[in-house]
Amino acid sequence: MTFLKKNKSNPLIRLAKNQSEQSFLIISATFCSILNKLFDLAPPVLIGLSIDVVVREKSSWLASYGFESVPTQLLILATASFLIWTAESFFEYLYGLLWRNLAQSTQHNLRIQAYNHLQKLELSFFESDSTGRLLAILNDDINQLERFLDQGANQLLQLFVTVILVGGAMAFLAPGVAIFAFIPIPIILWGSIRFQKRLAPKYKDVREKAGDIAARLSNNLGGMLTIKSFATESWELDRLRLNSHSYQRSNRNAIRLSAAFIPLIRFAILFAFLAILIVGGLQAWEGELEIGIYSFLVFITQRLLWPLTTLGHVLDEYQRSMASTNRVLDLIDKPIEISGGSLRLEPKNVIGNIEFKNVYFNYKNRNNLLTNFNLNISAGTTVGIVGSTGSGKSSLVKLILRLYPIKSGEIKLDGIGIDKYNLLDLRRSIALVSQEVYLFHGTIEENISYGNNSASQKQIHEAAILSEAADFIEKLPEGYQTLVGERGQKLSGGQCQRIALARAILKDAPILILDEATASVDNETEAAIQRSLSKVTSNRTTIVIAHRLSTIKNADKIVVLQEGSISEVGTHEFLIKNQGVYFDLWKVQAGAN
């Protein structure tokens, strides 16, 4: 993915730094896991002590503390067993609760962080990556990490505690026998590290392939109309099948490697168990090793080595989650190219004078679109911008909204560079009706009031009237409560555009930008919208980008663009008389009519 960085930091360390505010929860969960494992390892000790009591009676280890009666010693061991089992169960409940809470809160925090950061990134970022991949990160990758924290983290921690505690106890009680239990551990650790290194890139590839599938599905679901109209269902199914097979192969390669890990560990454990069974048994038979200690060693060897069989599964989960963690944190760490200034801006105080001064701009990896561009838009005027496709009309709008960074020069609002203003304040001062209308899944009322949740129903209805949307809305069975469907698919293009216009009108910003706002309406509706706009545009700066020249015929000034440069400026009458580019465009459209 284009935003991934070659970050050398361990993903676990990166995650801990990112979630530092949860350090108390992490420490508490870790503490409970350790205590649970301590109590979990106590039963083999109790078994060894009980055998010691039965075999040695009054000379047992407990008898040395004054408890000479065998029944008393057994009662003490029974009481200790009850307390230990109770404590183990209690801390198992606590660590389960704490780790799951940590998993859920981390999942929530990362998703909110990632999405919040995503919203702050410039538009060029979204042009260089796919929606499906980003959705895979925000959902699949974060869920993968949640699954590891829910169970895998505790398993890994308890495995480490087991090796340290049991290994230490065996070395202290019978170092000559314990050595046989330690021999397999370096083999297991070496194998684990080797497998971990080989698994890491494989699971990174698995996550990439999962992102490819998500991207394919997202694109196809969004373009279902095109797929059906071109009858390409079979072709798209084949393309998805290729992506799915690629994901399957990638997963199969990772699984094949991880599955080979457990049999290796089983043979290592078998060697250690047999060695302790024979060597320890001979020493106990010859009286060199106490029966209780020998019993403890036989039981505890299983507790030491058998959990290592889960190491493959735990490392498998760990590698999957760390690959996902890196993808999520790489997204969060992606630098923001456009940041707002510190100067606050109240929309009601905006005069509305806009000036492009010696602006140079190009899209990433392309030649300059604007070169030494200069344009002044006076406050309170309506300026029409026309030109052929690719001349830079819509780019001017994106630059005013600071959706892209300029290469050099300055864009000023009321005499101050727009980069000096708080970014949200700047955008609150501008109402945009884009040529690509986007309606959110919800009611018509919710879409008109989007961004202005405090608007009253009266204000919403007035905005609908001004945009010529009220008539068709009131004819719908559920009126303003009608669901528009995802991306407004239940409405026509013209209806969607009028709702988007109503949304901009309700925003009541001092600057209004219409980017092909009447492109999808019929001539009669366009004329009605023009009448409404004459009221809406009064006392505010209005920029109208139009393909239909009739839309900007009454503008105070018309700017004609050609390949990012201004070729003509003037009123409609002046440009017609001038018989330049605008005249040719007008003649073509008039002839077409």
TrEMBL record:
- Please tell me whether the keyword Transmembrane is annotated for this protein: yes
> What are the ABC transporter domain coordinates in residue numbering?
354-588
Gene Ontology terms for molecular function: ABC-type oligopeptide transporter activity; ATP binding; ATP hydrolysis activity
**What Pfam families does UniProt report for this protein, alphabetically?**
ABC_membrane, ABC_tran
The record's section on InterPro entries has: AAA+_ATPase, ABC1_TM_dom, ABC1_TM_sf, ABC_transporter-like_ATP-bd, ABC_transporter-like_CS, P-loop_NTPase, Type_1_exporter
First-listed, main subcellular location of the protein, grouped into a coarse class = membrane
Source organism phylogeny: Bacteria, Bacillati, Cyanobacteriota, Cyanophyceae, Synechococcales
Task: Name the gene.
Answer: mdlB
The protein in question is named ABC-type multidrug transport system ATPase and permease components
What are the entry keywords?
Answer: ATP-binding, Membrane, Nucleotide-binding, Transmembrane, Transmembrane helix, Transport
**Sequence ranges assigned to domain ABC transmembrane type-1 in this UniProt record:** 29-320
Alphabetical list of PANTHER family matching this protein: ATP-BINDING CASSETTE SUB-FAMILY B MEMBER 10, MITOCHONDRIAL, ATP-DEPENDENT PERMEASE MDL1, MITOCHONDRIAL
List, alphabetically, the Gene3D superfamilies matched.
ABC transporter type 1, transmembrane domain (1.20.1560.10), P-loop containing nucleotide triphosphate hydrolases (3.40.50.300)
- Report how it sits in the membrane: Multi-pass membrane protein
Q: List GO terms (cellular component aspect).
A: plasma membrane
Report the subcellular localization: Cell membrane
Transmembrane residues, as ranges?
74-95, 156-189, 259-285
